[in-house]
Protein 1
Amino acid sequence: DTAVSQTPKYLVTQMGNDKSIKCEQNLGHDTMYWYKQDSKKFLKIMFSYNNKELIINETVPNRFSPKSPDKAHLNLHINSLELGDSAVYFCASSPGQGGNSPLHFGNGTRLTVT
Amino acid sequence: AQKVTQAQTEISVVEKEDVTLDCVYETRDTTYYLFWYKQPPSGELVFLIRRNSFDEQNEISGRYSWNFQKSTSSFNFTITASQVVDSAVYFCALRVNTGGFKTIFGAGTRLFVKA
């Protein structure tokens, strides 16, 4: 059973479109995250939710809107896609916000904006 | 502010060589947590090890070992007798319990192990 699953795995779309990426975890974790990995492999946190509540909102354009309907799901909606949004987006979860609990990552969604 | 520096962008070794990946971190917090993750060519991110700031005991797990030194703010990772399957990007990461419990990643070190 996949612990953290993201769909779709690949997403190719044109500039200006709106798209969503879905994420679900079956680990019973309270905290979920979205990370963006750029072409140079740099990983940067975008958002963090704890029990459906937004905890971290990094300096991300407001075209990106996360939604957590319950603590097992954290979806990412992106409006008016731009070329610079092309990246791999990783969803992750952890038992809680702090401490030494490692992040459990999904397999990533490769977004290509043309 | 918190920061993680992995000065080695790419390392290339021949199979069976030992290789050490360097990680230097910056934080003013006295309690913090350090992690190593591996990203093989298939793209997934896999957790390898964690360390608490108050636990400087070094660890060996099979061919992997970790050297945590608070005095130099370093958390280095050594692979002994490297294998082709070790080829991956390795990330060092830092989490502190302030500022929203962010896990901050270094830029990664790409390791190539040649047969």
Note: The longest strand of chain B covers residues 88-96.
Protein 2
Amino acid sequence: AQSVTQLGSHVSVSEGALVLLRCNYSSSVPPYLFWYVQYPNQGLQLLLKYTSAATLVKGINGFEAEFKKSETSFHLTKPSAHMSDAAEYFCAVSDQRRYGGSQGNLIFGKGTKLSVKP
Amino acid sequence: NAGVTQTPKFQVLKTGQSMTLQCAQDMNHNSMYWYRQDPGMGLRLIYYSASEGTTDKGEVPNGYNVSRLNKREFSLRLESAAPSQTSVYFCASSERGYTFGSGTRLTVV
């Protein structure tokens, strides 16, 4: 069974500081990994995804994540936080092969709320 | 390009009442999903439909039923609402990537 663990339900950083949101996964098959962002009272927006190509994945809004198989991790980073980054972030894993090419079911972590202090 | 449309956006029910949450997508996606989001729990899969004519249970199916009416529409029904079903419900569809609706905020009193 696949699962995702996000370390830290709340993370607070100062504007301009490094953002690091941690995600560890468990999967019996090579996983597809995702980071989503949710702004207050909105749906989920895809930040980036890993689908077994390059291990360093660049996403929108300056975010990137690195797939480390040896550590079963897929941490999200951004060099310099902006006030507009304040949101909740979700890491997710799927087994893409289950449906012969479609994305399969996403299993989500519990989320990390990012606060950015001025 | 509407994407995934959910109705209603807000709903208050009394315990024991029934209702159907509607979801429609216009991207010709085969797979559709219903998730619920609760504070500190992330999103949990209720039911999914890998293709038109098929539905399967997810992680938390108890108290819910679904209907894949056609390729576009996937509805979620609460037959007898309970306060534990107070949540935000998200519908999604996927082909090569997921698209989420904007959610339905349901309160059961």
Note: The interface with chain A takes residues 30-31, 33, 35, 40-45, 48, 50, 58, 90, 92, 94-98, 100-103 of chain B (CB under 8 Å).
Protein 3
Amino acid sequence: GENVEQHPSTLSVQEGDSAVIKCTYSDSASNYFPWYKQELGKGPQLIIDIRSNVGEKKDQRIAVTLNKTAKHFSLHITETQPEDSAVYFCAASRAGGGADGLTFGKGTHLIIQP
Amino acid sequence: DAGVTQSPTHLIKTRGQQVTLRCSPKSGHDTVSWYQQALGQGPQFIFQYYEEEERQRGNFPDRFSGHQFPNYSSELNVNALLLGDSALYLCASSFGRMNTEAFFGQGTRLTVV
């Protein structure tokens, strides 16, 4: 089955700086890569996703890049703000029906220092 | 537009008991997936329901079972509870058995004592 590795486990950045979280996956058949943000006591919130036919996707301060050959993808947050503090999860799956759900990384605790 | 709703939010059960958790999907979604999230870990896929049938299953024992109703809502049942079943149980809904744009509820925190 799919295996997703996520690094780092904790990331502390100054407010206004950029943050980068990296993930690798093992199943070459995976073609959908979402990122979720989870705040304390809440369920994961989908913040951005990318499919394997696209190399990069941007939404305001958030961007995701995908390297299919190397089987890795990254989340980039620019101009970080205090409300960006949370646990971020990457995931991988086959997008279509019959897939075995989303396989998640272990998460990155992002801390924004004021 | 109501998102994914789960009930109850918290639950305490004794070892050996049985528990039922409930989920209502986001409006317009017909597929429900259940995940278990242990403390400090990412969610792990339990199973997915579509058209009232279990379509896919992760690496979980038969003690974990589920059901989907005609209105697309779903239940997760866990029998013979173990201490290790203590976790946050998350429901995610999507459309058409797809894993894309899956939206999660706030979860049910289950504690087994």
Note: Chain B has a mean pLDDT of 95.
Protein 4
Amino acid sequence: DAGVTQSPTHLIKTRGQQVTLRCSPKSGHDTVSWYQQALGQGPQFIFQYYEEEERQRGNFPDRFSGHQFPNYSSELNVNALLLGDSALYLCASSLGGQGDNYGYTFGSGTRLTVV
Amino acid sequence: AQSVAQPEDQVNVAEGNPLTVKCTYSVSGNPYLFWYVQYPNRGLQFLLKYITGDNLVKGSYGFEAEFNKSQTSFHLKKPSALVSDSALYFCAVRAYNTDKLIFGTGTRLQVFP
């Protein structure tokens, strides 16, 4: 039973560029949430996708966007990268948008470095 | 505003001794509380959660947590620490009427042989 898979594991981008991160949820899960974890900080909620729509959004600018595909996998896109976007990006999957009941499963993350 | 506080950046304990990692919360409605552990260059691993019921929650790897409503606390405990428990621990609360988690800043647990 595969857990949450994220790709790539590491990425280096130049300021101003665009980046796409990918996430495949745990088998049987249909909801994907994205978190940003800056160095020395706790994860911060970016947004959640359920039924191919953005259901909830945290305090992140519109440069952060996403998508969910019919197979429940998801992408996180960040445009016009800033140095401050350097962080570990975590994907968490759950079922029916009810992570508290059915559990959230986190991937190992994508480490993004913006230079 | 809903929030989680982990007052200690680091906790040091000798192997075999009991450990406590502190967490306090502020939420609207009933609190749904979680503990996660993060090893270097890894994602978050679920330890335990409190939704309702018994105030003492037992989780993975011998960890447990005590929910105290009057003190708005959810401290993580283990009777006998192992060197392999050394990691970064996060307390989290589910934000009211949403499915998103609000995390504390984390506590680094260092267990010395």
Note: The longest strand of chain B covers residues 87-94.
